[in-house]
Design brief:
Elements: H1 2-5, H2 18-39, H3 42-59, H4 69-95, H5 104-123, H6 129-134, H7 140-144, H8 146-170, H9 178-197, H10 204-225
Helix pairs in contact: 2-3, 3-4, 4-5, 5-8, 5-10, 8-9, 9-10
């Protein structure tokens, strides 16, 4: 599949052999838990192993939950929404010798990125639609079509941005940097909408550009987080 959908990946491009790929995966699978177990608390180790287990269920046969749209969406949303944000925040505070404390900005980020990650889970198959059709792989994109998926994804993200603006405006004084949080998310939503207006579902270049814009906005959120 990757030779058609993602020919630039190391294994598909022939830049990385199968044996070397297996060595990297197995080595990481062994060293990662060992390092976390030795250096962090049982809570961090538990979160790490929870994420690792989800990753195995998502990718490794016979489970391969990524074959099922709902399971794939829940998995990606859980990892990128909850584990990534709360886990990194908790690990950083622990490394600094600080106890865990709820932070409104982190809570907002986790909620916002959970929705964002669910959208990524749905749109991730858009650039792969040619290969998926060729190999009869059923995804939401092949089942419903490119335009409906992109339209629904854009609508959900715009609602997510509207919710972020509302959160900033309705929060009490001093909770967020209100002007930056509201203005930044309004502009990000506008950039998404402008990109969707140019979207051409029959053009692979346009599909890839639209998907790239979603990822650009994903990482932009972490940049904005620093200032909210």
């Amino acid at each position: 599949f990757d030779k058609v959908n993602k020919p630039f990946l190391p294994v598909a491009a022939g830049e990385l052999g199968t044996k070397a790929a297996w060595a990297l995966v197995l080595g990481s699978g062994f060293l990662g838990p060992l390092i976390v177990y030795k250096l962090f608390s049982p809570v961090i180790f538990g979160l790490y192993m929870f994420g690792t287990t989800i990753g195995v269920l998502y990718s490794v046969p016979p489970f391969r939950l990524k074959r099922f749209p709902l399971a794939a969406g829940l998995t990606i949303a859980c990892v990128r929404g909850f584990l990534l944000n709360f886990g990194v925040y908790y690990a950083a505070r622990e490394a600094l010798g600080l106890g865990f404390a709820w932070n409104p900005s982190v809570t907002f980020l986790a909620r916002f990125m959970t929705v964002f990650a669910a959208v990524i889970a749905v749109t991730k198959d858009l650039p792969d639609i040619e290969g998926d059709k060729k190999f009869a792989v059923e995804t939401l994109s092949t089942r419903l079509g490119v335009k409906p998926i992109a339209t629904a994804a854009t609508a959900v993200l715009l609602l997510n941005y509207a919710g972020a603006v509302a959160t900033a405006l309705l929060a009490g004084p001093g909770v967020y940097n209100t002007a930056f949080m509201a203005g930044g998310h309004a502009l990000a939503g506008l950039w998404l909408a402008l990109g969707f207006r140019k979207f051409q579902p029959d053009s692979m270049a346009s599909i890839k550009g639209y998907y790239k814009r979603i990822w650009d906005l994903f990482y932009l959120e972490y940049l904005m987080y620093v200032f909210i």
